[in-house]
User: Fold this.
Amino acid sequence: MLGKNLDLQLEALQSYAFVARNFNLVKRYWGWELVWLAYSTATSLAVAFIGEGSALITGQEDIDTSFFTVYLLIGTLVWRFLAGLFDNISEMIQWERWEGTIEYTLMAPVHRFTQIAGQAGFAIIYSLIFTMIIGLAMTAVFSLDFTGANLLGALLVLLAGSVSFVALGVTASILPLLYPERGAQMTHIVQAFLLLVSGIYYPIEVLPPVLQVVARISPAAYVLEGIRSAILDGTPTAELWGVILPLLALGIVGMPVGVWAFRQAELYAKRTGKLKRVG
Amino acid sequence: MTITEQVDALTVRSVTKRFNVQRPPIWERLRGHHRAGADDVNGGVARPDTEKRQVTAVDNVSLDVHRGEIYGILGPNGSGKSTLVRLLSTLLIPDAGTVQVFGLDIIRHEMAVKRLINRVSVDAAFFKKLSPLENLLYGARLYGMSGREAREKSVEILGRLGLEPRTYTQPMEEMSRGMQQKVAIARAFLTQPILLLLDEPTTGLDPRSKHEVQDFVNELRDVHDATILITTHDMGEADSLCDRIAILDEGRIVAEDTPTGLKALISSNGHEPTLEDVFMELTGKKLVDPNEVEPAVA
Assistant:
């Protein structure tokens, strides 16, 4: 029992090593963080202004611009959060390659699950803070009315979605492990595809039928469906399980599969000599 | 897992590692600019008759490093030294042969082996924007040390290595290569490895820094009971630091003995033979060739 406690304590400390290291990197790269925050805020505001200007754009005065603005705002904020998670997890190997520390980190006595837990912990905290800052900027610009919205339900959907997106990020992080030169680019293609099919700024029903099928396996599509339903329609939490359960299922199945696949990719990289630094 | 007094620190048996050579782009192959199977990159022996071109970076290497020994591997660039260290560090999986660290197989007991070893590579691998303290804290936590303990020990070791306290919180990128290498050694030492793998730790250092690092290596063995495997192409360093030396050429060990024993292998022409003489006699090559590069692997 004591041994198990010590093991857990050790794994918690090792996971924290990744969280602390990443926040130290954020601190040291503060200039770029500021640039990225300003750019993301401007992009999110620009998207939300499309909603505000929808009546003027179409010339139809009966459009519910407030609804449309919140619809887009949910899309842009949720995507900021999920993309942040995906970026920070899928690029964990690429960061180490850029810095030249990949061999040092991978020869440390750390289980991959522990490393991924630490990276995911950082990704969730970082993305949450990042998204909240953008959210605050948006509430300062737009007069938003959340009367009747089920914010707690929306938060539950977001948490469930986080688990499945972490699993997706872990699986994508294999690409930089297998392809030292092009892996990082590949993860961005995956992310772009998710942006296209997940209904971030439009209902997935407008997509061509083939992409609608693909959208059904994108966790982001379920997250957005659930959050929009909770905030725009005030759907009670009890009725949100239809999206929460698939999200949890994707996460529960996806996490061990992702960690296993990562381990297999690591063994392949060790057999073929792909752990060396690049860049 | 207990470690008995009798086992060697390191036992390497018939270890071989081959890499596929990156093929040139298809347009170059179509234009016939590439001669299949010709002029192999150094660091391995060409296998032109195989379907995929391969280089053998480490070729049937066997060696034993005794507990408390400083064991040197001497060889030119591309002779397979770094590949061998990567194999011992669990960063590569051998194609053939076995490696045991204090009796533990590096494949079957990977995690246990990782707790016993640490490595300093020729390029100080750090998060360059982070400070020495931040890098050391990260490394120490990975090995299970608490933040407070790691901070105290880091300050102590950095001071011992002659770093000014004001540099502890500066970004690593603002430090000289010599100082970065000292931090790398401090980071490895911080985790108290009982087998330390030093891959050309003094390459590129000025004579004073080189001397300080060598002193520290001796102290690690004498005071802290560590076993050290060091690769180098600095004959003086190998001669003065190592208890035994293996000479590696094209992935193979061509000789292994004490520095004195190696020198006794060749006849003297009126002067005391050096390890450079030994190397040239055994391999017909010079130890340092600036034109040599590491092999590209696919």
Summary: The mean pLDDT of chain A is 92.
